[in-house]
Fold these 4 entries.
Entry 1:
Amino acid sequence: MAWLRPPRPVFTESYSQEGEDMVLRRAFEAQPIGFYVDIGAHHPERFSNTHFFYCRGWRGINVDAMPGSMEAFARRRPGDINVEAAVSDQKQTLTYFIFKESALNGFNRELSLERAHKHGLSIIGEIPITPVTLAELLEKHLPRGRQIDFLTVDVEGLDMNVLRSNDWERFRPEVVLVEDMSVSSWNQIDASPSTVFLRSVGYEPFASTVHTIFYRRQDAPISA
């Protein structure tokens, strides 16, 4: 039984915005090392769902569209594969909205303008960026034969575009976590677009924080 397991000496500080890394810690508690993919990585430590695991010896791929964002990753997370890129199923050039609070940056025009007009947050720049698909990015950067233990997606409103851009037959993480700002309680999760989509490719929700839903591959061996 889980409660009979002896405690393990691990780092206990959470770096995630809503404690997502502690949920992942529980899911992978029996796995000493692994591999992650972080889409919308933002910063190597602040609001990071992966830095806790990097400190434990895990490695992975960090991706963010913000120009210059990978300089900090190269300094603080040199063991990772750090990629400056936008990810979407739309191949046309998109407008990237930049806020003073960089955690809010993203490609969703409606969400960005709402934040600017309703909440008084200033858009300080707009940059055209042509995205790649998640499948293309993984084909190029994922080491051959490497299984993805978890994929985290937080791209401020275009998360479904990232999910749809993957090749789910080739690249199947054990766990996928997705931000969904429309979900605030467990009874809303079934209606989430990410739930509907991920169920269609063989995943089921198993946990959530305030605005993040965790999905487990139905044949995954983890004990979450």
Entry 2:
Amino acid sequence: MGGGTRVVVVGAGFAGLAAADALRARGAEVTVLEARDRVGGRVWSVPFGDGAVVERGAEFILPDYDVMRSLAARFDIPLILKGTPYGRRTTIGEEAVGDADLETAFERVRRGAPAGAASVGEAITALALAPRQEALLRTRVAISNGHPVDDLDVSVLAESASTFGDFDNWTLAGGNMRLADALAEELGDAVRLASPVRRIRWSEAGVSVATDEAELDADAAVIAIPTAPLGEIEFDPPLEGATASALRAVTYGQNSKLFIRLLAAAPPSAIMSVAGHFWTYTQLGTDGEPAPFLVSYSGTRAAIEALGGGEAPELWVAATLALRTDLDLDPDPAAALLSSWDEDPWVRGSYSARSLASPIRDADLQRPLGPLFFAGEHTAGAWHGLMEGALRSGRRAAEQLLESRP
């Protein structure tokens, strides 16, 4: 199985690279086509300030990220403890919720959604919490998913419950993108950057994949890109049926990050603004000392636009400074870094959201169409929206492909 099989992988994010890695390990001949001039997709580590590295995209490695941990160990990339209380984002001032009340809210969520609730918004209301507790939960879930709680399927509340409370979290030393770089380095010349796919002809006999520069023939393809750019590829014949309609139905959340330089060291923290609809956090650096920056994170299109969108970071900088009066932050908006994935042509969103109106159809998204196999965090079932999910989806698609070969 796999030996001599020719495969084109579309996309060099975590999903595509994981698929290519698994296929290569089983003897397949792999070519990876990536539209960007870098690998990593929504994992993008960049320099910021004086020697620091920040994550413009996916950031937190959580305790159950077994695939990501094993790959990091394989490439000798250390995990760095962040120290950020990711699961216990607190509110302050007039919005403050005490530790006991916060724990009560967490516990009620852990018991499960009330019967009859269809959306997260309905479920949180039915928990009959105090107004501040309810507002905190609604805001936190909306920010994390980048999507309004009244259009998030009630199952998201159970997904969210696993991230409430106290647990450690990590990033990779030097940035999470190091893992993508390491996988790509092993693949060598098989990875072709700046090669957006324009057309895919396919039949039971194989595929022909065209970029602006070349056309490649193969036995099969793994499609590991978000659904917006996928929809702009010309498929011959067109994609039809349950898989195709499920791909068209995927809804993406909208999230933005703002990085502000710290003028004085600050220990790890996680403070949320309910009114401003964003949370802020500080963390440890590679040396175990406080990192020299703060991250401000918002979600939902309405919240991002209220903070100035991609055009006016000064509004968000001012709101962050007003919230975090405990920190010595650089007030200059020109020194801040704003990262918004809705402006990226190869994503146009942050990560998949379980919209109530347009559900993620997990089984259909994982179903191949002839020689076409689909990967990406949006196909990862319970792991959707996560780096771990992207990696797992790539391995799953590779296994499906290999099992389909004689």
Entry 3:
Amino acid sequence: MKPCWSPVWGALLLLGLLCPSSTAAQEGGATRTDAARTARNGVSRVASTSPCFEWQDSEQGRQRENKVIANLPEFARFWLTEDVVYLISPQERSTFLQMATDEERSQFIEQFWSRRAPDPTSLENSFKKAHYERIALADEKYGTQMPGWKTDRGRIYVTFGPPDSVESHRAGEKNDKAAEDGVETFPYPWEGWQYKHLEGIGENVEIGFVDQDGSGNYRLALSPEAKDASIITPPDNLVYSRSGKVTPESAQPFELCKGPAPTPLVQFKDLEAMVVSRIVRDQVRFSHRIEFAKATNATTLARILVYLSSEQLSSPSNDQNPSTGYEVFGRISKPSGWVVETFEHKISLDGRRNSAQHQPDCQFNVAIAAGTYQLAIVVKNIVTRETGTLHTEIEVPSHKEIDRKK
């Protein structure tokens, strides 16, 4: 059969993916830069405590940890064991399990994503957005009897993104490389993923998956060398920096900041003021649509699509100034007024008028818990400064509710 495991791959993939409960973080703990930033925002810092389970590698330690997890509130338990199971570091996991209140846990979750944001001052956390989009897509593509993100292919996809190329073979199909592999036909359905480059892991990495029982659940196809390798807990100091490189961070202990994460900067403050004041305008006509995709038991992926009206696109002001555009600002909040998500985008009309299909003019993907929320959207013509507003209530379905509708 076709080789499916590179030496450098085996050293890290076995560590990080076959031990999901303690997998290495894709982003490290708070760096010195993060510490300085939080200090500037007036947020105090406290070093994390030592691992909360002194016998982590023992049966007694595992039982104690499982008991603590079982006693967590539902949102916290699902977030820890599903949403970030492939991301969270052992230090972060230990700290989270020692949180005493829901407020502390919520602040921890905010900081968790803020530490991983490529630009913490931006409203859009591209790391978090990509993570949940991968979970939702993995569930759609690889789900069988279990959620797609839990399968071996799902784990790889969520962790590293889509492969650069995929090679698939049916059972009994002739192996073109029989001479070098020693196998003339594929005994089981087989799939090989090729990555040209994985930062910190290697070049031309290939991972093989095989469906031995015909269930459609492809499992990692390990080489004999990989099967004999010890599967151990990854070192606590193996992390991914924001640049994507694997770096030792043992000299920089994980730190937890007391209080909420630093607030990202809003660009369109005049539009934000309209949302806060609940001002109503209909000078700019637009419509919206929301699609929901299941991610985990704790989180639903909401895709908010915004469409400018054809009347708006062909307005005289746009014809007179072909370089005009629109600013879009949106906010999701709980009925209590607590802001959950804020997003903004600038729409350029260049080439938009001649579009054959009516595609959304902008899209916002929001990872959010099931429940009732208030959605506000403001759209402004940059040239005329005319605006349009939307204030509506949305009901975000749970994982089970989305399944029932299928």
Entry 4:
Amino acid sequence: MSDSLRRGAILIVIAELLLATMAATIKAASAELPSEMLVFFRNLFGLVLLLPLLVQGGLQGLATRVPHLHLLRGLAGVGAMYCFFWTIAHMPLAEALLVKLTAPFFLPLIAWLWLRESLSGRAVLAIAIGFVGVFFILQPNGAMQAAPLQVGAVGLAGAALAALAKVTIRRMGPQESSRRVVFWFGVVATLVSALPLPWVWQTPSAQALLLLLVLGACATSAQLLLTRAFAMAPSGRLGPFTYVSVVFGSLYGWWIWGEVLGPLTLLGMALVIGAGLLNLLRPRPAPAAADPKPVEERP
């Protein structure tokens, strides 16, 4: 393993630990606050924490010629967060994290439909295996707080929206810098997620406010680490390490909520992870742009 790959893998593992911690924080905070408030504060704190870095190069570098694509990316990203946060509240933590990681299965489908990119036989096979795995994961069990079909549909909708957001970044092309992409997502996501607040607002307790701060810090730190990691080594080499979040999620779920994964769930997890690895290992063309796009916020 090369030094850059090793350092990238370490950053990925730390980022996934932060994302699992964020998910556990969302699950704990959802007992008191609605998902709409959690999504808003996640975006607000993320924007506040990143803004000093984003404006260092001057505001003139933030002007864009594709505002419609930034709007689409923001709407898709916020929609994915709503779905993911709700799924976490109604599903065992490890399973919710794994359903979220089905987003790469939607990527080639959306890219094929929108960007006319080719869809290989291996990608189709990986998608089919992955969704069979999701079927096993969503078998009824006592840990779910809503109908498995409903939870699964919301989770998969979130994964599809996250994939749409990523394809939108690809559609923007190399002319949109990472700084500009992150800035406009933060602005759009914060404004859009603020719209439902008048109808759902609940004044957070001191404990909930602390959880919101942890949520925002973990999400922003993980995004920065992921962006740095994928700039060090090819995504196909680093991608398998992203599944460690499921391990961390399993430990959090068992430790805090006493969640235990059944045999069908474990089989489904094995199928999804195997399909994800198959999808990651397919040949990819080398990226042409030197400025890597930021990793989509894994809400």
